[in-house]
From TrEMBL:
This is Putative pentatricopeptide repeat-containing protein. The lineage of its organism: Eukaryota, Viridiplantae, Streptophyta, Embryophyta, Tracheophyta. It comes from the Eukaryota.
Amino acid sequence: MLRQSPARVVASRLLPLLHSRGFSEASRTLRRELRVGHKRIRPELLERVSRLLVLGRYDALHDLSIDFSDELLNSLLRKLRLNPEACIEIFNLASKQQKFRPDF
């Protein structure tokens, strides 16, 4: 008698789950959240914060009430990747917030 490989056994057990409606709805929602992001970042906020960081106006950033999120931090780091001083200041500002801890 032939034995099935462990991968084939697992696949045969999971295949019915893939076709159920609840699993496909959950995976579709998860894919959309990963693609779009849980919260949309306003482009004008991203532009304003990055402009202040590039100009070195860190005191003006302290006056703004910015709620940092992983999406905002990632977007700012991607936008300012050629400006190390601005990137360090982002982490300084984010570390001073009680609620936010970067998820890296």
